[in-house]
Amino acid sequence: MKDETQAVLEVVDLKGYYRGTFGVVLGVDGVSVTIKKGEALGLAGESGCGKSTFAELITGTPLPGLHYEGGRVEVEGYDVWKLPPETLRKEVKCKHMSYVPQAALNSLNPIKRLKEFVADMLKERTGQRYSPDEAREMIANHFERLNLDKHVLDLYPHELSGGMKQRAVIAISTYANPSLLIVDEPTSSLDVSSQKDMVKMLIDIQREGIIKSMITVSHDLAMLRQLCDWIAIMYAGRFMELGKMDDVVSDPRHPYTKLLLSSLLPLEKWIKSQDLKSIPGRHPDMRYPPPGCRFHPRCPNCTDICKSEKPPIFEKDGRQISCWLCSEGF
User: Fold this and answer.
1) CB of 329 within 8 A of CB of 315?
2) Helix, strand, or coil here: 146?
3) Which residues form the domain of 278?
4) Does the pTM exceed 0.70?
5) At 48, which CATH number?
6) Is residue 127 part of a domain?
7) In this predicted model, what pLDDT tens digit does every residue of 217-231 receive, in sequence order?
């Protein structure tokens, strides 16, 4: 990506596996990416491909069952997986990085007003005690800056619509102006009107410099295209293709990217007449991933080398593709 800007996030060969009585599931298996100041990365792929797992691993505190297996994650110079938990919690989270999970609507305490929730959050992050009214006063201007009425802070979660709760969580998560915001499926549980408000809010926090960079995980490519200037296509725990959003959408190079885009509603007027196509086969069981290129059992262009050897990452002009078909350039 853009070399002239400073790296906000650097991920090198990140691996994270689920371990349990079911065995070992390779959730993320060797992913690398650099995000620089001012960049917004969209992460797309089929369900189960590792998108949410990747987002959790970046935070340094994944849910139980998901284990960090190796690699490096640096957020503005902080090596997330080498920091003491207390330092990660107080010095990195919220200040340098904020994460809004897919179940963000359930993250608010149902028996506390939002201002009470914010007071608890501030105590957790800073170690200082604030009364609910003090917390309200501290965050009210930030809410209004994001076109949220500050009186929302006086309400309980059940008094808010789903869209309002989601936007309130985003507002609370960006209060400390984190350099990196990670949002997982921010519009998946919202109606069309609320989706529009959410997208506008995420655009505004980038334009106003409230955050420096953003990662958005979503199945909704149209939404990602509004928010992000780069996109990574993920499959079976690895990145298949990464590049500028418009380049990947208009000229996909990896066979999986081509099939994924052909299975979605087209974004361009000139291709709206094309029929939607499903991707043949099914996502592999990541307890027993296929050898070589993990997409080869479903790939229409599969060759012998695809079945036995993992393709390296071929790069040209910032575009990265993990496919043997690109071994002679693309």
Assistant:
1) no
2) coil
3) 7-84+180-191+203-326
4) yes
5) 3.40.50.300
6) no
7) 998 888 999 999 999
